[in-house]
Amino acid sequence: MNTLQVNNLTKTYPNGVTALNGINLEITNGMFGLLGANGAGKSSLMRTIASLQEPTSGSIYFNGTDVIREPNEVRKQLGYLPQEFGVYPKISAEKLLNHLAILKGIVDKKERKTQVTALLQQVNLYQHRKKSVYTFSGGMRQRFGIAQALLANPKLIIVDEPTAGLDPEESNRFLNLLSEIGENVIVILSTHIVEDVRNLCPKMAILSNGEIIAEGNPTDLVAGIEGKIWTRIVPKSDIELYKALFHVISTKLVSGETQIRVLSENKPETGFEMIVPNLEDFYFATLFNQTLERA
Ligand SMILES: Nc1ncnc2c1ncn2[C@@H]1O[C@H](COP(=O)(O)OP(=O)(O)OP(=O)(O)O)[C@@H](O)[C@H]1O
């Protein structure tokens, strides 16, 4: 069993922005979803765990090794797919992956060839191996990204917003691939897409303003708000009124009509119907409660 321990982690950038504020997490094998809005601090946390930047304070241990003091030890066991994979040189996918395998420390040529071929097949890019990654679609690039993250059999895999910008089919293919990676490693998936976490992750946390505001199993977390989510269709012009009167956690257009969802222990007023909550409701309700606390 692999274990990642994050203790009281803070990160304040030189411009004074505190992106992480006292993060505590313990993550073991399987897929862990880190949900948060843009700017919540997800990339800051991912980059710090991946030892690409140092925290201001706090500690991170992977299987007992201090990530901050011994980054090279952890890097050997790490696969990282950053939010922006960067500029691709105009060489074939196969050559680029082979080159990245050298950087990852796979020195044996035969071993490298075996791994590169197997990974290109696993991510379904083998037939495109002679093409430059430069010419790949967004989905193909992300699949290439996961192939490079899987080089040298990492025990800790971090993928930062991997489906942003992908069309639904590409996104689906990518996520299926991710779920196949296995239960014997830690996979941290950072995203603002609630659906991705619901479909893939048995454990999750919500990050907001640099703090973890909820953590657990998605089904258990959703069970905690059962009986408390109410909905009704309202005229668009009345939304502000409803927001003033009730705890409106989300508004959505459903077939051209505006549906609001309200968090309430009791039926807010006639016309509301109780609904079976989903993870999105939990996410919005948690963010809503946090905003109330901060106000
Ligand atoms: N290198 C940096 N220097 C200064 N501020 C930064 C830096 N990187 C991030 N920030 C700030 O830290 C906060 C958290 O950013 P971060 O990128 O970690 O969030 P995020 O949840 O990954 O959001 P996004 O999905 O938009 O990248 C933001 O206010 C951001 O502007």
What topology emerges from the helices and strands here?
Blueprint: E1 3-12, E2 18-28, E3 30-35, H1 42-49, E4 57-62, E5 65-66, H2 71-75, E6 78-81, H3 93-103, H4 109-122, H5 138-149, E7 156-160, H6 168-180, E8 186-191, H7 194-200, E9 203-208, E10 211-216, H8 218-223, E11 229-234, H9 239-245, E12 248-254, E13 257-263, E14 273-274, H10 279-294
Parallel strand pairs: 3-8, 3-9, 6-7, 7-8
Antiparallel strand pairs: 1-2, 1-4, 4-5, 9-10, 11-13, 11-14, 12-13
Helix pairs in contact: 3-4, 5-6
The structure holds adenosine-5'-triphosphate.
Which characteristics define this entry?
295 residues; alpha/beta; 2 domains; 6-stranded mixed beta sheet; 4-stranded antiparallel beta sheet; 10 helices; 14 strands; 28% strand; globular; binds adenosine-5'-triphosphate; ABC transporter ATP-binding protein
- The low-pLDDT segments are none
Question: CATH-wise, what's the superfamily of the largest domain?
Answer: P-loop containing nucleotide triphosphate hydrolases
**Do you know the CATH architecture of the largest domain?**
3-Layer(aba) Sandwich
**For this structure, what is the CATH class of the largest domain?**
Alpha Beta
Helix content: 25-40%
Termini Cα gap: 42 Å
| Largest sheet entry | 6 strands, mixed
Describe the structure.
- InterPro entries: AAA+_ATPase (IPR003593), ABC_transporter-like_ATP-bd (IPR003439), ABC_transporter-like_CS (IPR017871), P-loop_NTPase (IPR027417).
- It holds the Pfam family ABC_tran.
- Residues 4-234 form the ABC transporter domain.
- α6 (168-180) links the parallel β7 (156-160) and β8 (186-191).
- The chain has 10 helices and 14 strands.
- It has 2 domains: 3-216, P-loop containing nucleotide triphosphate hydrolases (Rossmann fold); 223-294.
- It has 295 residues and is an alpha/beta fold.
- The longest helix is centred in the last third of the chain and has 16 residues, at 279-294.
- A 6-stranded mixed sheet has the order 6-7-8-3-9-10, sandwiched between helices. A 4-stranded antiparallel sheet has the order 2-1-4-5. Strands 12-13-11-14 form a 4-stranded antiparallel sheet.
- α3 (93-103) packs across α4 (109-122) and α5 (138-149) packs parallel to α6.
- Bound molecules: adenosine-5'-triphosphate.
